[in-house]
Design goal:
- The chain is 45% helix and 0% strand.
- With 119 residues, the protein is an all-alpha fold.
- It has one domain.
- The protein starts with 9 loop residues before the first helix and ends with a helix.
- 11% of the residues are buried.
C-alpha cells in the first residue's frame, strides 16, 4: 500500500510516483486509464504500537497528498472516516465485509463522477 510502506513520506510519494505518472499522462493527453486516489485508512484497534506511524501522521499525509492532487484534477476516495473505530484483524487490514462495502461505495462514487462528466 502506497503510504504505509513509505512511512507516510509525502515527498517520496509525490516526487517518485505521482508527479512522474501524472506528467506522463498529461503529456500524452491520455483519456484512459484514469486515476483516483484512495488515501490511507484509519488504523484498527489491534494495531501494534511499535511503529513510528500514528493516526495524526496518517491524517496529515492524506491532507498533503490531496493538496498535491487537487490541481491535477485527481479525485480522492477517502475511506478514513469509514474505517474509524472499525475492528481490524491486524490493525491495518480489514476483512471481507469492510472491503466489500468500500468497493461498493467506490463503484457508486465512480458512477457519480461519470454522471457529472468528470470521469
Amino acid at each position: 500500500m502506497v503510504g504505509f510502506h513509505d512511512t507516510l513520506q509525502v515527498g517520496v510519494i509525490t516526487k517518485r510516483l505521482l508527479k512522474p505518472l501524472l506528467t506522463a499522462m498529461k503529456s500524452k493527453r491520455l483519456q484512459w486509464p484514469r486515476l483516483v486516489w484512495a488515501p490511507v485508512h484509519q488504523f484498527g484497534m489491534m494495531r501494534t504500537s511499535n511503529t513510528a506511524i500514528d493516526v495524526n501522521m496518517a491524517r496529515e499525509f492524506n491532507r498533503r497528498v490531496e493538496e498535491f492532487l487537487t490541481p491535477w484534477g485527481v479525485p480522492v476516495f477517502d475511506t478514513f472516516p469509514l474505517t474509524d473505530n472499525v475492528t481490524s484483524f491486524d490493525g491495518q487490514h480489514y476483512g471481507f465485509g469492510v472491503n466489500r462495502m468500500k468497493v461498493r461505495i467506490l463503484l457508486h462514487y465512480l458512477q457519480e463522477l461519470k454522471s457529472l462528466g468528470q470521469w
